[in-house]
Structures are given as structure tokens and as C-alpha cells.
Specification:
heterodimer; A: 268 residues; 6-stranded mixed sheet; globular; B: 280 residues; mainly alpha; two-stranded antiparallel sheet; 70% helix; flat
């Protein structure tokens, strides 16, 4: 595999073995790729990210990560598990899930502490993230007191502090105001420039063009129906409409009312 | 029925707001006072030792000294005396007072009679030993409660949980309690919002049987959500390298002031033990 990080072949996954979440996924991720997975709610994007993070495993098909097939047994080997967790970081869709410690600071340093990183390095990275994300005032606060934007920033910080090669982000801008969205998008672009591979799941088409070089469209049938450059995918209104990614917008011009598919691709 | 619904609403909202105020308010713990500035481990150890002295003290003078010291500590920690007295005297000390009342009579504590009176022909005698024993009991309760309250008021609750490690409680246990503390708030918000959502759709008046269905259904929903959250949080922990033995940051530093305070407390403990047991 040439610089290949993930290689998925005919991946199937079903919750409890009977509720299909993914049906035959094939794709390859190379080093420093910028990938967006777009699709309507319930299309299996989050499941796919959890599979890539080695939290769940395919019922059928294979996932190879850094040249080795991901299997549950492999993670019983502490050294492999630590190495994998250091290389792949996942930002969960719901920050409430990811922020489980009593204070923000403890949440941010939780990962590197478990991975046995040197305390001096943890402190140095923490200081850097505090500056970049402007979260100094939040450190001693309990996560439940934060706004959704602050929670999202802290969740991202708690993954970035591990400094993984691959960043998996599940709906990183969902529910955020435009300014915070901008801040997070800029941060992710910066992380990609510093050499990280980005895999972002979203149905927020505003951010796709900036955060992806390749876009995969996941259908309600839980499979990838199309992939390509963001410009080409975003220009295909029929495809987007068929997968609930744009809506029919109805508006009036003086006496006449007409409808057309509606899509915003950038923030103003 | 409307009154009953108001009762449920008042009880539910009252309980939630009490929990939020008592468990999650850390305004006093954030003030720049004396006890707030101490290392929480040192603070907890010294407070527990004061409570232990109080429990074994036989001299009223020693208990009174410790009580006055507690009030002074509250003042030095920027806690209003009125608020502190109200917080410590309600409930437990009052109950202690009721429990102690029978002990003042000669039936339970024979000794030198102080007062005699008759009720329906039955003679009651209050003894000096009875009053002194009951007084010591109530003072012990109020002083112990005051120290425990002072510790919880001047220490953030999650820090207090970490202090449990001093008493050799396993890290995983402390971590689980810490997570419970964090998620109780989330579930309280869910309960509050669910109730408001029901109210917005069903109005104020809900039939009794229908109300029962709603409550039962919501208990089931909350259980389901907590179960789901449990799985998701565990995934989030594994994703960041958790493998069964948690490693926690210990950022507390013990300074000169802590050592000074610890020495003072130690001297007090040794002095109290000497005067209570060995000097006689």
C-alpha cells in the first residue's frame, strides 16, 4: 500500500447483527488526504468513522489500517492499541459523550495520560492548544457549564492534544454559529497543512469545499453512491437532492412564486 | 387535579433546583479565602482529624474551642456567618437536640438533681449529669456537622472526590464517581426539559392515569438514554487510549501555608489526645 492509511474492502456492519448500518463500503485513504463523507441522517457516516477508529469491527469485509487488518483481538495487545490510538483520533458527534471528566482541563489531558505520554510534552501541547483555541478561561470549569461551541472546541482539543496523524471528525460544525464554525474550519485547515489526514463526516455543505479534496456521498441504502472532487459533487443538484442534502426552496417575485433546489456552499 | 399537578411540578422543579444549587454550585469554593487556598488533601485530612477529636472529646471546653475555631475558619474563608449558621443548624443538630432531650432526665441519666416538676402526677427530675451529657452530645454533632459543611463549601466537589485517593480508595472508583457527578447534571437537564416539553404539549392539566403513563414512559426513556450514553462514553474513553486502568492528572501543589496548617492541626490533635486520655 503506497502511503495508504486505510483500505476498506466490501465493509458491512449491522447493529446487533440485524440492523444494517453499512452495506459494502470500499474506499482507500492516503496520507494527508482531505476527505468528506456526506449523507443524510442515518446513512451510516458515524458508524464508518467508529469503524475507522477501531471502536467497532466489520461483520463482513476488511479494513486495513497502516498495513494491518483491524480486528478486535489486535486491540488486546496494549502496545498496538496505544500506537493506533496515538495515530488516529476521533472527535465524536456529541461532545457530551467525549467530555466525561469533571473539568475541561482533565478532559483535554485524559488521552495523552492514558497513552503514557511524557508530562512535559502534555503540558507544552496543552499550552499551545489553549492559545490556538482561546480556551484558557474554560480550563477549570466543568464541561456541563459550557456552551455547545465551547464544548465542541474542547472536544477537538482533547483529540488534537494526542497529535494524531489521522483526524476523524464527526459533524464538527453541527449546531455552531457561523463565527465558531469559521474558527473550527480554519483550525482544521491548519492541522491538515501541518501534515494530518482529515476525514470529516458532515451534511453541512458549507464546509465541504474547504475541508475536502475528495467527497464520498453515502446513501440511505448505507453505501457509497458517488465520489469525486467537491466542486463536481456540489454541482450535481440531482444527486444532492436525491440524498436529502439540499431542499426545494420556494420564494416569491412580486406576483409569481417559484421553486428551485437550494444550496449554500460558503459562509459569508 | 390541577392542584396535584402543581404539586408534582413544584416538587420536581424544587428537587432539581435544590440539586443544582447544592451539588453544582461552587461559588463559595471559588472565593479567595483561607481554606480555599489550602491543598485540598491537607484540608480534608485536617478537617477529618478535627471531626475525630470532636467525636472522642470528653471535655465541653475542647469541643467549644473547636466550634469557635470552625466559625473563625468560616469567616477567614469569606463565608457569611449567618449563612453558615443557618446551613449547619438546620436539620441534623435540631434532630440531635430532640434525640438528646430524654437523656437529661434522671430515668436515663441518674445523678445530682437540678430541677423537679410533675406532669399528671408523674415526677420528672432533670439531672446535672443529664444536661452535661446531652449538651456534650449536641455540641459534638453541631461541631462535626460544621466542619463537614465547611469542607464541602470551601472545596469544589470534583476536587473533593479526588481527595478520596488520600484514603486509598481505588482510582477507578474515584473516576466513576467523578463521571456520575458530571452526568447527573446532564440527566437533570433532560428531566427538566422533558417535563417542560410535556407541559407545552399537554398543558397544565393531565389526567391521573395519563400522567402515570407519561412518568413511567419517561423513566424508561431516561434509562434507555443513560444506557446508550454509557456505551458511547466508554467508546470515547477507548478512543483516547483508556484500557482499564485510568491515569489522572494530579495538579495540586502543597505549599508552605499547607505545611504550617498541617503542623498546627497535628499539634492540636496530639494536645487533645494527651489532655483527654493520658493526663488523667
Amino acid at each position: 500500500m503506497n502511503n495508504g492509511i486505510f483500505e476498506l474492502k466490501n465493509v458491512h456492519f449491522a447493529y446487533l447483527g440485524k440492523f444494517p448500518a453499512l452495506c459494502g463500503i470500499d474506499f482507500t485513504v492516503y496520507q494527508q488526504d482531505k476527505i468528506a463523507l456526506i449523507g443524510a441522517n442515518g446513512s451510516g457516516k458515524s458508524t464508518l468513522l467508529h469503524l475507522l477508529d477501531g471502536l467497532i469491527f466489520p461483520g463482513k469485509g476488511t479494513i486495513r489500517a497502516f498495513g494491518r487488518e483491524l480486528k478486535e483481538d489486535l486491540f488486546n495487545d496494549i502496545s498496538y492499541s496505544r500506537d493506533f490510538r496515538k495515530r488516529v483520533g476521533l472527535v465524536f458527534q456529541n461532545p457530551e459523550v467525549q467530555l466525561f471528566c469533571p473539568t475541561v482541563k482533565e478532559d483535554i489531558v485524559f488521552g495523552p495520560l492514558q497513552l503514557g505520554m511524557d508530562k512535559a510534552i502534555i503540558t507544552e501541547r496543552l499550552e499551545r492548544l489553549i492559545c490556538v483555541l482561546d480556551i484558557k478561561d474554560l480550563l477549570e470549569r466543568p464541561p456541563h457549564q459550557l456552551s455547545i461551541g465551547e464544548k465542541r472546541k474542547v472536544a477537538i482539543a482533547s483529540t488534537l492534544i494526542i497529535d494524531p496523524e489521522v483526524l476523524l471528525l464527526d459533524e464538527p460544525t453541527a449546531g455552531l454559529d457561523p463565527l465558531t464554525t469559521r474558527h473550527i474550519v480554519d483550525l482544521l485547515i491548519q492541522e491538515h497543512k501541518s501534515g494530518k489526514t482529515l476525514i470529516v463526516s458532515t451534511h453541512d455543505l458549507h464546509i465541504v469545499e474547504e475541508l475536502a479534496d475528495t467527497v464520498y456521498v453515502v446513501s440511505q441504502e448505507k453505501r457509497i453512491v458517488k465520489s469525486g472532487k467537491p466542486q463536481a459533487i456540489l454541482a450535481d443538484f440531482q444527486l444532492l437532492q436525491a440524498h436529502n442534502l439540499i431542499h426545494i426552496h420556494r420564494h416569491s417575485h412580486e406576483d409569481t412564486t417559484h421553486a428551485h433546489p437550494h444550496l449554500h456552499t460558503e459562509h459569508h | 387535579m390541577k392542584r396535584a399537578n402543581n404539586f408534582i411540578e413544584r416538587s420536581l422543579m424544587g428537587a432539581l433546583s435544590f440539586l443544582k444549587e447544592s451539588i453544582f454550585a461552587d461559588e463559595l469554593a471559588a472565593r479567595p479565602g483561607f481554606l480555599q487556598s489550602l491543598d485540598p488533601h491537607v484540608k480534608a485530612i485536617t478537617m477529618f482529624s478535627f471531626i475525630i477529636i470532636v467525636l472522642f472529646a470528653k471535655s465541653m471546653l475542647l469541643v467549644m474551642y473547636l466550634y469557635v475555631q470552625c466559625l473563625l475558619l468560616a469567616l477567614c474563608s469569606k463565608i457569611r456567618l449567618g449563612f453558615f449558621l443557618k446551613r449547619t443548624w438546620i436539620f441534623m443538630p435540631l434532630f440531635a437536640l430532640f434525640i438528646a432531650v430524654p437523656a437529661i432526665f434522671s430515668v436515663f441519666t441518674p445523678g445530682e438533681p437540678l430541677f423537679r416538676f410533675q406532669v399528671s402526677g408523674i415526677a420528672f427530675i432533670i439531672t446535672r449529669q443529664g444536661i452535661s451529657g446531652a449538651g456534650l452530645f449536641v455540641s459534638r454533632v453541631i461541631t462535626s456537622v460544621s466542619y463537614a459543611t465547611l469542607l464541602s463549601l470551601t472545596t469544589k466537589h470534583f476536587v473533593l472526590l479526588k481527595v478520596l485517593r488520600v484514603f486509598k480508595i481505588p482510582q477507578v472508583f474515584v473516576m466513576v464517581i467523578g463521571m456520575c457527578y458530571r452526568y447527573i447534571y446532564l440527566f437533570m437537564e433532560i428531566v427538566e426539559n422533558t417535563y417542560l416539553a410535556i407541559k407545552s404539549r399537554a398543558g397544565v392539566i393531565i389526567r391521573y392515569r395519563h400522567g402515570q403513563h407519561i412518568v413511567a414512559w419517561n423513566i424508561a426513556q431516561l434509562w434507555q438514554r443513560s444506557y446508550q450514553l454509557n456505551e458511547d462514553v466508554y467508546s470515547a474513553m477507548r478512543s483516547r487510549g483508556y484500557s482499564g486502568e485510568p491515569v489522572i492528572l494530579n495538579g495540586v501543589k502543597t505549599g508552605k501555608r499547607d505545611w504550617f496548617w498541617l503542623c498546627y492541626a497535628l499539634t492540636l490533635v496530639i494536645g487533645a489526645v494527651y489532655f483527654t486520655y493520658w493526663r488523667r
